[in-house]
Amino acid sequence: MAPRIVNLSEWRAHVITVLRQQIEARAEPGVQALLAEILAYPQVVAGAVADVADGPRRFATPLKIATNEGVLSFLNTTTVFGTPTDITLSELALEMLFPADPETIAIVSKLTADKSAASSLETDQ
Questions:
Q1: Contact yes or no for 18/53 (Cβ under 8 A)
Q2: pLDDT in tens, 42-82
Q3: Cβ distance 18 to 93 under 8 Å?
Q4: 112-118: long-range contacts at Cβ-Cβ below 8 A with a sequence spacing of 24 or more?
């Protein structure tokens, strides 16, 4: 996936910042292992970004993915469920990606329509 991420250095910095914040809140071995794995990946040389913890990108770092149809740009949000008394739910996090611009909406709509049309053709045969 990394070769398709247009803003890889920025996205990598964002992911590292989020993982470090999660570790500060609760030192989970799985999250620590994931951070160690990501830190072991080769650095992106061009346009390297040191940290996004204090800038505006901290709250809205887009994920930009190159496709044959064009660049898709998504904003992500992470939701954590539960209360301190419900251990199972307090460990659950749901990350969702939302289109960040009209171009992404148009491309995703086209791809979805194409896939639906292809599925209809397969079931008709």
A1: no
A2: 877 655 454 455 555 556 789 999 999 999 999 988 777 76
A3: no
A4: none
- Letter for the amino acid at 29? P
Lookup result for tokens 């599925």: 119
Please give the distance of CA 67 from its chain centroid, rounded to a whole number.
16
Q: Scanning the structure block, which residue is given the tokens 């920025």?
A: 10
Give the pairing type, strands 93-99 and 70-80.
Answer: antiparallel
pTM for the full model?
0.71
Model confidence pLDDT, tens digit, residues 14-50: 889 888 988 887 778 888 999 999 999 887 765 545 4
One-character DSSP codes across 28-92:
-HHHHHHHHHHHHSPPP-TT-----SSSGGGT---EEEEETTEEEEEEEEEEE---TT-HHHHT-
